[in-house]
C-alpha cells in the first residue's frame, strides 16, 4: 500500500533523499475526491518526473465562510489507492494543525489577476490557494508541479506567483477531462441531483457554441458571450455567475478574441457552483 | 576579484553547482553600504556554511514614499571588495528591472508582527522585506541565512515567515556591532552631522540604563520605559519615535520584563532615524 505521510519533516526527508539520488520530484497538489481529471495529472507528472508526490489536503483558507468546506467530499483511503494505482510514489496528507498551527499569520498574495472571474465572488480564495501552494512547494521542493487547466484562473495566478517570486519550479497544466456528455470532471459534480446532472453538460455545450462562432470568423466579445448566454439560458435550472473572455496570462478583458483567449464561465445549478473554460487556438 | 552577478539564472546555476558538490550555502542579504556589522554577518555565515553569497540590493518596495530610497548610500565596488576580504564567495547584485519587472504583483506578508514598533511608522515596510527575502531565498536556496539583530523586528518577522511558510532555511542572527562609544553601526549613521554624531550614543546609553534598572530588580515596563525616556530627553537633538518592550518572538507588549524581552527604540536625530535594541537575558 502506498505510504500516506502527514508529517512535514518525514515527507521532506523522503523528497530530499530522492532528490539527492538524482531523481526529479513531481508534485500534484489536490484536495482529494479523485476523478479521472486528478488521475490524468498524476500520470502527467509521472511522464515528466521520477518521484511523484500527490498531496491531498482540503485547504480551509481558500474557502469562504458561506462555501462548502464542511461538505467537501473527503475519502483519503480510496484516493490513496487510486493514486497508487496510477503510479504515484507517496501521498502527503497533512491536517489543519500541521498546516496552520495556532498563531499562523503568513500569506502569499498575487495582486490584480485574482480580482476577475472566480476571484470576484470568492474574495480571499486565491490568497488561500497561493499560500497553501507556496507551503507545499517549500515542503516538497518539486522540479515540476502539475495543475488542472479546469481551474484556469488558479493556474494563471500560480504561474504569476512562481514567476514573480522566482520559484524554480516548472508549472505544468493538465487538460480538462470530461464525462462522455462533455461535463468537465469535478469533485463537486457529486453534489448534483439526477435532474441537475442532466442539465450540467450545458456549460460545455455553450463553450462549444462559442468556439463554433469563432471558427466561423466572429471575434467580437459581446456577440460571443451573448451566444454562450443564450445556450446557458436554455437550461432552466442554471443561474449564470459570469461569462468572461480574457487574456489567459494577464486575466484582463479583451475586445476581440484571438489566439490565447480564455473563455471562462461559472454557473450555479441549484446549490452547486460549476466552472468550465476553453482556450482559443485559432 | 570576487564575482558580482546580477543575473538570476547565473547566480542560481552557481549555487546549484555548489549545492550538488555537497557544499552548504549561506546567504547574507544586505542593502550594501557595508560597515563592521555587515562584515561580522559574512564571517558568521562562513562559520556555518561552505559557500557564502552576499546579496547587495537596495530594495525599493521596503521604502515608504517619504523615506530615503534615493539618498540611501550605494557603493557596490567598495562593498564587493570588503565582502571578498571577509571571505564571501560571490556577490549577487541585481537591479530593479530584474527583481521587479513590469507587471510585478506578488507579495509575501506576515500579519500581526509588523504592526508594532517600526511597522507602525513604516506601513508596507515589512511586506517589502518579506517579499524580497522570499525572492532571494528562492533564487539562492540557502541552508542558512544570516540577518543582523539590530533590525530585531525584521528578524522576528522573517523567522515567523520561514516557520509559517515551511521554508527549510536556518535563520541565524548576528549580534549588534557597536562603535567604541556604543552607537550601533548603521549605514544611516553617515547621514549624521558632527554634532548629531556626538549625541547619537545616547540611544545605547538609554538601553544600558534600562538594563541596569532590570538587573537591580525592576521589572515594571512603565518604570523602565520612563528611565529610557529620561536618558534620551537629555540629548537635546533627539526626538523619540517609540520606546517599546515586547516579547521578542510575538512582538506583543508585555507588562513585566523577563527573559527574552526585547527593548527596542527608534529615535530621530534631525532627519535621520536611528534604531537600537537589547534583549534581556536575566
Keywords, separated by commas or semicolons:
homodimer, 282 residues, alpha/beta, Rossmann fold, Pantoate--beta-alanine Ligase, Chain: A,domain 2, 2 domains, six-stranded parallel β-sheet, 10 helices, globular
Structure, described:
The first copy, chain A, has 282 residues and is an alpha/beta fold. Chain A folds into two domains: 3-174, HUPs (Rossmann fold); 187-276, Pantoate--beta-alanine Ligase, Chain: A,domain 2 (2-Layer Sandwich). Chain A has helices at residues 8-20, 36-48, 76-85, 96-99, 117-121, 125-140, 152-164, 194-199, 202-215, 221-233, and strands at residues 3-5, 25-30, 51-56, 90-92, 106-110, 144-148, 170-174, 238-247, 261-269, 272-279. In chain A, the strands form two sheets. The first copy, chain A, has a six-stranded parallel sheet with strand order 1-4-3-2-6-7, sandwiched between helices. In chain A, strands 8-9-10 form a three-stranded antiparallel sheet. The radius of gyration of chain A is 19 Å and the shape is globular. Chain A starts with a strand and ends with a strand. The relative contact order of chain A is 0.13. The A-B interface holds A 8, 12, 103-113, 130-131, 134-135, 138-139, 141, 160-161, 164-168, 250 and B 8, 12, 103-113, 130-131, 134-135, 138-139, 141, 160-161, 164-168, 250. Strand 5 (106-110) of chain A pairs antiparallel with strand 5 (106-110) of chain B, so a sheet runs across the interface.
Amino acid at each position: 500500500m502506498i505510504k500516506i505521510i502527514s508529517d512535514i519533516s518525514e515527507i521532506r526527508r523522503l523528497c530530499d533523499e530522492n532528490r539527492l539520488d538524482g531523481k526529479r520530484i513531481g508534485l500534484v497538489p489536490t484536495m482529494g475526491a479523485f476523478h479521472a481529471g486528478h488521475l490524468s495529472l498524476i500520470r502527467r507528472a509521472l511522464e515528466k518526473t521520477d518521484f511523484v508526490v500527490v498531496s491531498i489536503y482540503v485547504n480551509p483558507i481558500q474557502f469562504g465562510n458561506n462555501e462548502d468546506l464542511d461538505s467537501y467530499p473527503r475519502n483519503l483511503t480510496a484516493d490513496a489507492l487510486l493514486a497508487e494505482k496510477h503510479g504515484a510514489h507517496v501521498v502527503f496528507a497533512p491536517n489543519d494543525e500541521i498546516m496552520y498551527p495556532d498563531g499562523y499569520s503568513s500569506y502569499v498574495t498575487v495582486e490584480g489577476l485574482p480580482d476577475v472571474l472566480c476571484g470576484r465572488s470568492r474574495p480571499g480564495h486565491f490568497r488561500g490557494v497561493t499560500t497553501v501552494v507556496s507551503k507545499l512547494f517549500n515542503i516538497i521542493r518539486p522540479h515540476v508541479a502539475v495543475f488542472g487547466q479546469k481551474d484556469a484562473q488558479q493556474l494563471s495566478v500560480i504561474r504569476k506567483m512562481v514567476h514573480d517570486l522566482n520559484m524554480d519550479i516548472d508549472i505544468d497544466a493538465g487538460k480538462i477531462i470530461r464525462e462522455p456528455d462533455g461535463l468537465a470532471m469535478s469533485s463537486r459534480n457529486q453534489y448534483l441531483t439526477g435532474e441537475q446532472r442532466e442539465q450540467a453538460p450545458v456549460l460545455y455545450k455553450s463553450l462549444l457554441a462559442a468556439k463554433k462562432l469563432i471558427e466561423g470568423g466572429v471575434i467580437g466579445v459581446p456577440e460571443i458571450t451573448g451566444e454562450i448566454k443564450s445556450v446557458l439560458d436554455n437550461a432552466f435550472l442554471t443561474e449564470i455567475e459570469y461569462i468572461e473572455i480574457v487574456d489567459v496570462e494577464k486575466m484582463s478583458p479583451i475586445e476581440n478574441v484571438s489566439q490565447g483567449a480564455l473563455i471562462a464561465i461559472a454557473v450555479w445549478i441549484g446549490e452547486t457552483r460549476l466552472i468550465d473554460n476553453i482556450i482559443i487556438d485559432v
